[in-house]
Specification:
Homodimer. This is Glutamine--fructose-6-phosphate aminotransferase [isomerizing]. It catalyses: D-fructose 6-phosphate + L-glutamine = D-glucosamine 6-phosphate + L-glutamate. By secondary structure, the chain is α/β, with parallel strands linked by helices. Helix content is 42%, strand content 16%. The strands form 3 sheets. The protein has a 5-stranded parallel sheet with strand order 4-3-5-6-7, with helices on both faces. Strands 9-8-10-11-12 form a 5-stranded parallel sheet, with helices on both faces. A two-stranded antiparallel ribbon has the order 1-2. Helix 2 packs parallel to helix 8, helix 4 runs antiparallel to helix 12 and helix 12 runs parallel beside helix 14. The longest helix is centred in the C-terminal third of the chain and has 20 residues. The two termini are 31 Å apart. The structure holds 6-O-phosphono-alpha-D-glucopyranose. 6-O-phosphono-alpha-D-glucopyranose (G6P) binds next to helix 4.
Length: 367
Amino acid sequence: TSADKAGFKHYMLKEIYEQPAVTHAAFEDRIKDGLVDESAFGEQAAVIFDQVKQVQIIACGTSYHAGMIAKYWMEGLAGIPCHVEVASEYRYRPVVISEGTLFISISQSGETADTLAALRDVQDQILASLTICNVPASSLVRESDLNLMTNAGPEIGVASTKAFTTQLVGLLLTTLVLGRRFKLSQEKEREIVALLAQLPGLMEHAIKMDGSIEEMSQAFAEKNHSLFLGRGTLYPVAMEGALKLKEISYIHAEAYPAGELKHGPLALVDKDMPVVTVAPRNEMLDKLKANLQEVSARGGELFVFAGCSQEVQPGEGIHVLEMPEVPEVLEPIVYTVPLQLLSYHVAVLKGTDVDQPRNLAKSVTVE
Ligand code: G6P
C-alpha cells in the first residue's frame, strides 16, 4: 500500500532516503570508547580474528560490488590479503584455500542460492565463516560462525540501495577489527571511527542533490547505452551505478576502471553514449582528467561527480555535479547515492516498473 511507502512514489525512493538513518544504525551500537566493539560479530569473534591470515569474500550482484570495495579497504587500509569473487564462479571451480582463511559472505537476504552453496562447499577447509547480512533469521546467518547484521530494515525494491550502503559500513567495521591484527594502528582506527560520525550528514547532503540529478536524468532517458567510470574504491561504485541503471531503466550501462578507457570503450564513445564519472579526490584525479578530455574530444557528453575543491571545469559537453567534501574512506558510501538517484529518475522518465523490474527477483533462492 502507499502507506508503507511513507508518502514516496516508490519503495526504491523511500529506501534511498532512509540511508542517512540506516547507515547510522549500521555502526552506532558497535562503537565503544571510540573503537569498534568486536563482540558485535559474535562470541567467538576475538578468538577467530586472532587466527585470520587472509580473507575470501563471496557474494552476488550488488553485494558483490560491496565486496569489491572491501578489498580496497582490507588491503589498502590494513594490509589484510583479500580475495573477492562472485559466488556462482567460486562454487563451480576448484579453489585453493590457504590456511587461516576467513570466509566472508555478503548478502542482503541471506538466502541467495549460490552464496549459500559456496559457503557449504568450503565449510571444512576454512578457518571460520562470517556473514554480513540484513536478515537475522536467514540461512547464511544460521550457518556462519560469526555474523554482523547490517540493520538496514526490510528492503522491498528489487534494486538494492540501502542494503548496499549499510553492507559497506559493516565491511568497514570488519576491516577495522581485523586490521588491528595487521597493519592498522589504533590511532588510525580512532580516526576512521570518528569520521564515521559524519556519514549520516554526508548521506543527507548527497540526497539533497535529488533535484539536480532529476534534471540530469533527461540526458539518459532516450539513450540506449552509457558508460560509468571510476578509480580505486569508486570503480566498484561505478559498477554499482551501471547495474542500477540496467536493472530498472533497461539502458545498457557498462562500468570501467577509468584507466582502461583507452583500451577499448573509448572506441564506442560518441554523442549518443553519455559517460558518468565518479572522480576521486586523491592523486589519481589528474590521470582521470586526461581520460575525461579524451571523451569530450569525441563528442561524448560527460557527467562528473566531484568534490567542490576539485578542479574539474564544466564546459562544452562537460557537466560537473558538485558533491560534498567527503573523507576519502567514506567516498564509496556517499558517491553511491547520486548514482542510485540517477537510475531512479531515468526509470521514472521511461515509465518502467521501478520496484519490480522485469525478469528480476529480489532474492534468487534457486539457480
Ligand atoms: C538479486 C537481487 C540483487 C541482489 C542479489 C544478491 O539479484 O535482485 O539486488 O544484489 O540478488 O542478493 P543478496 O540477498 O545475496 O544480497
